[in-house]
Write a structure and sequence with these properties.
There is one protein chain. By secondary structure, this protein is mostly helical. It is 45% helix and 10% strand. It contains six helices and four strands, in the order ββαααββααα. Helix 1 runs antiparallel to helix 2 and helix 1 packs parallel to helix 3. The longest helix has 17 residues.
Length: 137
């Protein structure tokens, strides 16, 4: 499901549009991808070869895919997504369950902006945080 959210002043119709826009160094191009639905953003993102440099971009700033800074960016973006009540409630309803993602690339960071391992790890961390804060018990 697409869950819209606002991250650092930018509206995204879904998390896929956020992930795909990171591939674009040009702020105007990034903004255009950020406004697309998941299918459009994914198709547009497939036109970029960011893997050669290992850099992604947020608001014109290059960020190394393998850096702690990038992981912190992902974490902040997921925090923003968790502000979407419908998303947060759905995530919390998975309490006690192991989250898996079978269609993403597993472990190789060089092949994807978000591995399935990273995706599930971050979601489980955010779920724990929401449940700790007793927002959705």
């Amino acid at each position: 499901y697409s869950h819209s959210f606002v991250f650092e002043g930018q509206h995204f119709p879904c998390f896929e549009s956020f992930l795909q826009c990171l591939k674009f160094s040009d702020p105007d191009e990034q903004l255009a991808v950020a406004s697309m639905n998941a299918k459009e953003a994914k198709e547009k993102g497939q036109t970029k070869n960011w893997q050669a440099s290992g850099y992604l971009y947020w608001k014109g700033k290059p960020i190394n895919r393998y850096s702690t800074e990038y992981q912190q960016l992902l974490s902040r973006a997921y925090d923003a997504l968790c502000e979407n009540q419908v998303f947060a409630e759905a995530l919390c309803r998975s309490r006690g369950k192991l989250l898996i993602h079978t269609i993403g690339k597993q472990i190789r960071k060089r092949n994807t902006v978000l591995t399935s391992f990273e995706f599930c790890k971050i979601l489980m961390q955010k779920r724990s945080k929401l449940l700790r804060n007793k927002k959705f018990n």
